[in-house]
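USER: Study each token:
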Amino acid sequence: MDKILAAAKAIALARRNRAPLAPLEVPPADEADGYKVQRALHDLLLPHVGALVGYKIGCTSQVMQDYIGIPHPCAGGVFEKGVYDSGAKLAASDYVRVGVECEIGVRLKRDLAPGEAPFTAEWVEEAVDAYAPAIEIVDDRYVKWETMGAPTPIADDFFAAGCVLGEAVPRSSVPDLKAVAGRVILNGEEVSKGTGADVLGHPHNALAWLANHLAAEGKGLHAGQLVLTGSLVKTLWLKPGDKVRMELDGLGTVKAQFT
């Protein structure tokens, strides 16, 4: 347990200092250890970042799995102080190297308790209250993530740095998520696009994966929590002054500026 806590402390220090994380002295040995470090990290971060209000799921699309080099989903935490409303103006200097992703956000209306596992896409859909267009804010907090393997980024919430949310849309009035097209507009110009089907075939598949992943650790999802289901597009790295807008058909738009 000491090496778990030591890794968590090193990551927490780097995050608080907004410093790139060098390879850990004793990195997590595998992904299971990575999630143990992540839980220890959350305990250390909570006084600074507010309550854990939900989760992000990374590597749910082929484009992201190819880009990151990890062939399966990975989860990280989303914290109260990192959640912003559409139109937010954020300082690029608050991040090591800030990027954004185009996502479908989910708000739960009921708990998904670990005892109910295994979960299916149909089951978790019934637990959804509303959806929202979302910009996931990611941060390349690493000296060189390409050489780290999966366990260390998992330990560090898998690049998660918060999100910007558009208006929520009740589940009853949402189109077929599989067919929802998402577009990324950077400084007024469309730079990439994807569809809900790019996220593990359907965003509900990603949500079911997360519920099952947490259940395996004896943890559940809770009513009111937010889940970012994964990017429809490859990560877009930003520079100060950039304005981004995500347009998701039937879900609306969400925008942010990084000054």
